[in-house]
Amino acid sequence: MIGSPPMAVNETGDEQPGAASVQAVGVAFAVLESLSQTPDAIGTSDLARRLGMTKARVHRHLSTLRLLGFVEKDSATDGYRLGWKSYKLGMAVAENFGLRRIAHRHLLRLHKDSGQTVALAMPAGPDAITVIETIEAPGVVAITVKPGSVIPAPTAALGRAILAFRDNTQEEASFQSIRDHWYAVAINERIPGVAALAAPVFDDSGRPVASVGVIGSQAHVTQPPRQDLLAQVQEAASRISSALRSTRWRSAPGPHQHRQRSTGDKT
């Protein structure tokens, strides 16, 4: 039986992975990163084309990642999406970053004040977001956004609130209104009759690292938004940003009352 090639050993006796092993890990992470930017299941051929690899090579890695639980296969389309272990890994990163912990009490307050479903999202690549926390509002029609959901950023208020403040979108006219008013609204864009209102969250360097928003019926979330609801969403975004040591919201216009502290909110 032919075994695996021996690994190199350095001067301390530690095994060193060969070039093939390093390359295999790199391909696996490239596959996962590409899937993280795709909200819907994607076929092997399309994924291989996106990565510039052969279909056989990508299929090999998908099979291994599926066996390990990091990828799952959609039985209806035969496409692949991120699996449960990838979701847990992403949640662990968010927890380690501290964003969910920092934001939680502000989400609770927004939920209480607005009476709407609230959500917190982070970027998942250049063109997608991942919802990392939700608090659902009771109602006749439940509006459920599951944590771990990957959504195309341009189609969602939570996504556009982040995209508008990135350096590489400053010249795009489609984001100008969001930059001027510091909020994004999406009505009927993903679910008929459902609307969302979101505002950006910044870190200490002024980068948009997340967004917070409310999701409800278009009778409650309108464009232009009600001033009380807009103030509640922007206040939540401001306070979470302050807790991340950001001062960027101090320059924002709007009806909200920013009460950022130089040391950030205690969490």
UniProtKB/TrEMBL annotation:
InterPro entries for the chain: ArsR-like_HTH, GAF-like_dom_sf, HTH_MetabolicPath_Reg, Tscrpt_reg_IclR_C, Tscrpt_reg_IclR_N, WH-like_DNA-bd_sf, WH_DNA-bd_sf
Keyword Transcription regulation: yes
Natural source organism: Ramlibacter henchirensis
The IclR-ED domain, residue ranges: 85-246
Domain HTH iclR-type: 22-84
GO biological process: negative regulation of DNA-templated transcription
Disordered, as annotated region: 242-267
SMART domains: HTH_ICLR
Keyword field: DNA-binding, Transcription, Transcription regulation
Protein name according to UniProt: IclR family transcriptional regulator
Gene Ontology MF terms in the entry: DNA binding; DNA-binding transcription factor activity
